[in-house]
Design a protein that fits this description.
6-stranded parallel β-sheet; NAD(P)-bd_dom_sf; binds nicotinamide-adenine-dinucleotide; GFO_IDH_MocA-like_dom; about 25% strand; 9-stranded mixed β-sheet; about 35% helix
Length: about 375
């Protein structure tokens, strides 16, 4: 019998993220033994009972629900974890906050800025602990980038560049909508690559390089009509397949962002590069344990890009894993966020990004979409 304080989790949505979060809660017990709190997988909710039962058995949930409202109404749930498609985030989060539950919500916060603002209001009114799963912040190499930037080693920052490239929607016969393809349906997803992929790039950028003041963007929908799986009819596609935008940060640096699902050969190529007066940093999700660093103060005969394998015990999170030199993976970012959320309950400090912090990402996403629609620069502070 554990002597730890319990955080009783109610998970909603048994898809991709339902699995990564469940894995996070399970692993945190083994690898973060010093935490005062321990997650207890109390209940999982899927609309289909057989699916919920199979998921509960696979991941060790004690019980199942088929209606998320019933899950929220339970007295034996402390925290609600929202792993549903984007159209459900606001309704569930607002109801969970009203029921006094802590909330861990998948990104993007919601489909639109307006929906997101309603969520932040509800959370603030309820005063419940909350976090949004912008998990890339918690890959050790990305956290190390943050530490290097905060130490001032880069000096004045001139440029921030990020890409998130995929190729899975190039096929013009791919339908839109329905269980597997909700990302193609604007009514469910809110937007295309802007909310799905650029939101990650923007969250990391705001964290590493501060606020974005204004943007100019272009979007494109390469395939304009697709069969909708729920209606069986060919319907207009309302999501953005690709988006590029330029921006200015409040620290005076310039930003260049690109995301597309039409970059043949790329499955999930998230990269960023930051160029400062004294040094530069770059990172690539496909080689996620590595951080590249160029320091202009190095001896000129030895100067060059260093490739840092971020696996040593004095680098972020790595004292919790194996031995120096052995890498970790994508899934560990979720273990780290679960650990940081549990730690935040112990310390009382918020677990970033909170809903309020994630609202800043929503503002930039909205500014990007507005600018692409109008063709004009858009000021984020005016939103
Ligand atoms: N942090 C990340 O890196 C990351 C990666 C992928 C997805 N996401 C986000 O996570 C969320 C879920 O994405 P996913 O890839 O897991 O999708 P998914 O389609 O794999 O899973 C969604 C699940 O929600 C269930 N669901 C839908 N409506 C429901 C309802 N009313 N009640 C209960 N269950 C319901 C579906 O049946 C499905 O099992 C999205 O908001 C997405 O943007 C984040």
């Amino acid at each position: 019998m554990s002597t730890k304080k319990q955080l009783r989790i109610g998970l909603i949505g048994c898809g991709f993220m339902g699995r990564t979060h469940s894995n996070g809660y399970l692993r945190v017990k083994n690898f973060f033994p010093d935490l005062a709190y321990q997650p207890v997988l109390k209940a999982v909710c899927s609309r289909t009972e057989s699916k919920a039962r199979a998921f509960a058995e696979q991941w060790g949930y004690e019980s199942v629900e088929t209606d998320w409202k019933a899950l929220i109404a339970r007295n034996d749930i402390d925290a609600v974890d929202i792993c549903t498609p984007n159209d459900m985030h606001a309704e569930i989060a607002i109801a969970a906050a009203a029921a006094g539950k802590m909330i861990l919500c998948e990104k993007p916060l919601a489909r639109t800025l307006k929906e997101s603002e309603g969520m932040v209001d509800a959370i603030e009114k309820a005063g419940v602990a909350n976090t949004v799963w912008y998990n890339y912040r918690r890959l050790p190499a990305v956290t190390l980038a943050k530490q290097i930037i905060d130490s001032g080693k880069l000096g004045r920052i001139f440029h921030y560049r990020a890409n998130f490239l995929q190729d899975w929607t190039i096929n013009a016969d791919l339908p839109q909508g329905g269980a597997a393809l909700w990302r193609m349906d604007a009514d469910v997803a809110g937007s295309g690559v802007v909310g799905d992929l650029l939101s990650h790039c923007i969250d990391t950028a705001l964290w590493l390089n501060g606020s974005i003041t204004n943007v100019t963007a272009m979007t494109e929908t390469f395939v304009k009509e697709r069969m909708h799986q729920l209606t069986g009819k060919v319907e207009k596609v309302n999501i953005d397949d690709a988006c590029s935008f330029l921006c200015r940060f409040s620290n005076g640096s310039l930003g260049l962002f690109e995301s597309t699902r039409y970059a043949r050969g790329h499955k999930a190529l998230y990269t960023f590069e930051i160029n400062g007066e004294n040094a530069s940093i770059r990172w690539d999700l496909h080689d996620l344990n590595r951080l590249e660093y160029f320091d202009n103060a190095d001896d000129s005969t030895l100067r060059g890009w260093r490739s840092i394998h971020v696996t040593d015990g004095d680098q972020p999170y790595m004292d919790k894993w194996w031995v120096p030199g052995l890498g970790i993976g994508y899934e560990h970012s979720f273990v780290h966020q679960a650990a940081d959320f549990l730690k935040s309950l112990e310390t009382g400090a918020p677990c970033s990004p909170t809903f309020k912090e994630a609202l800043e990402t929503q503002k930039v996403c909205q500014a990007v979409l507005d600018s692409a629609a109008s063709g004009a620069w858009k000021d984020t502070e005016a939103l």
